[in-house]
Description:
The protein is of the alpha+beta class and 180 residues long. The protein contains 6 helices and 7 strands, in the order βαββααααββββα.
Amino acid sequence: MTLKPLDGLPDELHWLDEVAREHSVGGALRLSLPIRSTSGKLIVDGWTAFPYLAGEHQPGRWLELAKIAREFAPLFAEAKRPDFVDMRNHAWARADRFAWGVDDGGPPVAAPHVADLVSARRQVLDPPGIIHGDLTGNVLFDSSHPPAVIDLTVYWRPAEHSVAVIAVDAVRFEGAPRAE
Length: 180
């Protein structure tokens, strides 16, 4: 078992316990879903529990991560958009809304080149659904088991967005070469 402080909204944890568990039965991925305490609670004194899943992060397996992103999204094809995605206020959620043109009313960004990046946005026509928004460091590989997806970070975006995040993370955090 892995213990960690609650680092999201309680609604996210309850969604993982109910919806993710219902939609992820079977399949080629192992998902780390919350464990209830002996008293039936998901949060005890600000802490949460998840199963220990065998495996380790292996940098450089970006094509496999992209495949996993594409396998993850269909698990939740019938799931409805969770309300908590609009309630999150951490930096990653605010950046996500900004990138997708959903202004959350925050202060204007004065960083260099932001206006150029904003003007380069284009409409995405792929339908949104449940994705894992942070797969790069959150997949464990083990030769005896299917890949384990941990620290589920749920977003409501097109599946290929998850792959795009992997590409950026690969360059930024794992030293992948930039394609010319």
